[in-house]
Amino acid sequence: MQGHFACQRSCVGRCASVRAGLCLGMVLVASAILARVAGAQDVFAAATIRPSAAAVKFERDGKTEVSPGMLRMQDVTVNTCIKWAYGVQDRQIAGPEWMQAEHWDITAKADGPVGDVQMKLMMQALLAERFKLGFHRQEKELKAFALTVAKGGAKLHAAEGEGKSVMQNSAVGTVAKSTTMKEFGDMLSGPLQTPVVDKTGLTGRYDFTLDFTSYLPEDMKTMRPDATTVIMTALQGKLGLKLEPQKEQVEVMVVDHVEKPSEN
Question: What is the largest CA-CA distance in the chain?
Answer without folding.
Answer: 109
